[in-house]
Design goal:
about 350 residues; mainly alpha; two-stranded parallel sheet; 14 helices
Length: about 350
């Protein structure tokens, strides 16, 4: 791991962090509520899992046309993306419940996509949350196939058109992960990150092979065995489901970090400013007032709050957002909020254009 250290910062930065923690903490104390999941969150968990599981059961149990089955695979994609954003994400951060086994069990919903929890925790909780938007360390802004997301990476001719083709490739994320989990596990092991999660690379590898085998046997094997659809038809459904889930997941993640105003710190490798200030400068919120969106994307449109307080369940972000905004403004720090989804989307497209045209920030 690169030797990146965040300074505790100047006195002003420390005062900002203290006030932020105190005022957010005060909100939970004053209202006598837990920072973890509440009943609404449990209900949401059931809805999201049902959106994924029930269409699959229906496909297996009732004869239907190919078109109807494909429509149900789209629904499964919407459902599993919802599970990822609203259930798995909180659970893997340990913010779903105070009980470790509940977090562990619900974090395991990632296996319903065929992806690996340990890898995800290293890539997301460690690399992305610690080194947000720092090129070369935060894998979320690594070059994704033909897409350039970081100013520090090499500019190529085809990047000029990435604002058009990026969205097709965003849809490949979870399918690529199915395979990439293997090389990534060995990479993280070389970086000493598997040991730090109390994992042994050998047992993790064996478990990963078994889990993926079981996943593929169920999601592809069962429909081939039970329904009248051919292997190729089932495979198309499988790809559609993953594509739908991936485009939703990728887009929601990109709208929080690859938009106008979200910085990509470049320069001195070893010293960065205060970590909380860094989170404010590299992260954006969007569409606070869109209730359905906020519900479906698991509060990932409140990404600033999530980055500052990853141990608080997202169901509370809407309430603590005004506090975070107020404290940031009082201390003169940016609070990057895009008013609507459309606004955040167009900001992402503009940023993709800039990244496709500029070799480096001047």
């Amino acid at each position: 791991m690169k030797n990146i250290k965040f300074g505790s910062g100047a006195l002003a930065e420390k005062q900002f962090v203290n006030q932020l923690r105190n005022e957010v903490g005060e909100y939970f104390l004053a209202n006598n509520i837990s920072t973890k999941a509440n009943f609404a969150m449990v209900l949401k968990t059931i809805v999201m899992l049902s959106l994924y599981v029930f269409p699959f059961i229906i496909i297996l149990m009732f004869p239907m046309s190919l078109l109807s089955a494909l429509a149900l695979t789209v629904l499964m994609g919407v459902g599993i993306a919802g599970v990822g954003m609203s259930v798995m994400h909180d659970a893997c951060h340990g913010s779903y419940s105070k009980r470790e086994w509940i977090n562990y069990t619900l974090g395991g919903t990632l296996y319903l996509l065929g992806n690996n929890v340990l890898n995800w925790k290293i890539q997301h909780n460690v690399l992305h949350h610690t080194y947000t938007n720092i090129s070369g360390v935060d894998e979320d802004i690594n070059t994704k196939g033909p897409i350039r997301l970081a100013f520090k990476t090499l500019l190529k001719k085809h990047h000029r058109f990435q604002f058009v083709f990026a969205f097709f490739f965003y849809g490949m994320m979870t399918i690529v992960k199915l395979i990439n989990d293997f090389p990534n596990l060995f990479l993280y092991n070389r970086q000493g990150l598997v040991r730090s999660h109390h994992g042994s690379v050998k047992s993790e590898f064996i478990k990963m092979v078994l889990r993926k085998f079981v996943y593929l046997s169920i999601i592809i094997g069962l429909p081939v065995l039970i329904t009248n659809f051919s292997f190729w038809q089932v495979l198309i459904g499988f790809i559609i489901m993953h594509w739908v889930a991936s485009i939703i997941l990728s887009l929601v993640f990109q709208l929080a970090h690859v938009v106008e105003g979200a910085e990509q710190p470049i320069g001195a490798e070893e010293k960065y400013e205060n970590w909380h200030v860094h989170q404010l400068k590299t992260t954006a919120d969007f569409a606070h007032s869109n209730r359905f969106l906020s519900w479906y994307v698991g509060g990932l449109n409140f990404q600033i709050e999530h980055h500052l307080f990853p141990n608080i369940c997202h169901i509370h972000y809407k309430k603590i957002a005004p506090i975070v905004k107020k404290v940031a403004n009082e201390h003169g720090y940016p609070y990057n909020l895009k008013p609507s989804f459309a606004n955040a989307f167009s900001s992402h497209v503009k940023t993709l254009k800039v990244l496709g045209a500029e070799a480096m920030h001047h």
